[in-house]
Amino acid sequence: MSADVAIARARVEASFARQTVMETIGARLLSVAAGAVEIGLEITPRVSQQHGFVHAGIVATIADSAAGYAGLTLMPEGRGVLTAEFKINLMAPASGDRLVARGRVVKSGRLLTIAQAEVEAIEGDRTRTVALLTATLVAVENRQGVVD
Amino acid sequence: MSADVAIARARVEASFARQTVMETIGARLLSVAAGAVEIGLEITPRVSQQHGFVHAGIVATIADSAAGYAGLTLMPEGRGVLTAEFKINLMAPASGDRLVARGRVVKSGRLLTIAQAEVEAIEGDRTRTVALLTATLVAVENRQGVVD
Amino acid sequence: MSADVAIARARVEASFARQTVMETIGARLLSVAAGAVEIGLEITPRVSQQHGFVHAGIVATIADSAAGYAGLTLMPEGRGVLTAEFKINLMAPASGDRLVARGRVVKSGRLLTIAQAEVEAIEGDRTRTVALLTATLVAVENRQGVVD
Amino acid sequence: MSADVAIARARVEASFARQTVMETIGARLLSVAAGAVEIGLEITPRVSQQHGFVHAGIVATIADSAAGYAGLTLMPEGRGVLTAEFKINLMAPASGDRLVARGRVVKSGRLLTIAQAEVEAIEGDRTRTVALLTATLVAVENRQGVVD
């Protein structure tokens, strides 16, 4: 692991720890690389919609964070990212043992970054892709409270 | 309130009560009318991202449900709706006392329904629009576990 | 008409005249107000897809321009707008005599502007909504070639 | 080339030839494989927006068709596809000699198909990715005029 990746990892870990919603829904940070972040979620009733699947908004929550943190790994220190918008296609019901959202940067710009996340549902040894998210991230700097 | 609206309300209330995620995040159903549903969320640390705002995915969770249930109010009995995809613009940080997501049907079709939701943040007597979601809902019928 | 609206109109008209694609597809500027612009398109075979409807991309072309120019009417002089992304729902086949795209600003920001456009198809005295677009516009300044 | 691919190619070629808009904008079909279609566009003033770049809606036109035809290659005969919605991120100004839109199916379903298209701008021997589109396609059958 290079020094840069170690710094990015420490930065994402510290920020993730401040996302109290992640503890609420039962998500945790799985991996951090340059331009790529993975977040896992145990599938439990506390994140269910009415049919017993994980709610689309919760799928979006881990996908958006995976995409956003992937973007953050490529930002100079002192800059944070906010999601300006995202779009998510729910391709299959999100059920099984757990979800993994794999975020990666598609294009990193000074102002806007495009990132995607794919979400997989894992049940025993089977893996299915359940969602695909594309996000537009905006870099913010020197704005109170918005760093990393 | 007409008989139809009373039936739609009972249907949405029963379905909402099965969305255990709503209790997890602290959301509740505020109102149900034909083609229009409102969901409220108290802003507490349990739904926060790293800067103290409500996480975009949680904003999306109540917006998606408000849009989806607006769609459900117009569906014949025995049919459920699933979100095929949604897109959300986050226009301002979601902070304040509470959020209200107001969903409404834009176009109801036999197979696909388009619905939108606007999310407002309320702080004291100030109200700001913080997000706008557009969803494509797909009607499902006779599929095990997917009713209402 | 106020002086401001007159200036915005002149600005949008001059820019529209430089959009040679509009002549190619047969579109023209119908109206300009503060935060709202309308563009019309005659439905002819030159914009058809394989089933004889107007191609979704051409519907998007007039909708994106109506939304973008709506955003431009609220920008200080010397600033242009570029579309960072848009999403469009095609709600019904685009057929009839002509289309009208009605763009309006949802939220105007220093950096990002959110605008929407609704597209209607007109056939004789019947009008149907055929598409709904939401766009994120980014303000650009001092960039060569990108003014208005 | 397998018999199946030959049939898909003939089918897409025949449909593309009926898309008169493609001749209007100067686009042509470059390649057809199972689940993947490429469309090219010469960059000429007739597709320009006000800054001299290819209009976002025209970029969307070839991207949507590349994605839609990628979906069509996987459909049983007698079924057509319509775009229910798409979202496109414009990552860089579309300028240069020509554009190539590369569509591919992400998930093919009985009712809904998710497809993506990446658009590249080619100038001399340089290639840049300028746009990324995600579309939801709906399969239609036995509807007058909508086949392939």
Characterise this structure.
4 copies of one chain form a homotetramer. The longest helix of chain A has 17 residues. Chain A has 148 residues and is of the alpha+beta class. Chain A contains 3 helices and 6 strands. At the C-D interface, helix 1, helix 2, helix 3 and strand 3 of C face helix 1, helix 2, helix 3 and strand 3 of D. Strand 3 of chain A pairs antiparallel with strand 3 of chain B.
The percent range for helix content of chain A is 25-40%
Please report the distance between the alpha carbons of the first and last residues of chain A: 21 Å
Sketch the topology of chain A as an H/E string, one letter per element. HHEEHEEEE
What Rg of chain A, in angstroms, do the CA atoms define?
A: 15 Å
Please give the largest β-sheet of chain A: 6 strands, antiparallel
Proportion in β-strands of chain A: 35-45%
Largest interface: A-B, 41 and 41 residues
Mean pLDDT of chain A, rounded to whole units? 94
Q: How many helical elements of chain A?
A: 3
Q: Stretches of chain A where pLDDT falls below 50 for ≥5 residues?
A: none
What is the β-strand count of chain A?
Answer: 6
Structure keywords:
148 residues, homotetramer, six-stranded antiparallel beta sheet, alpha+beta
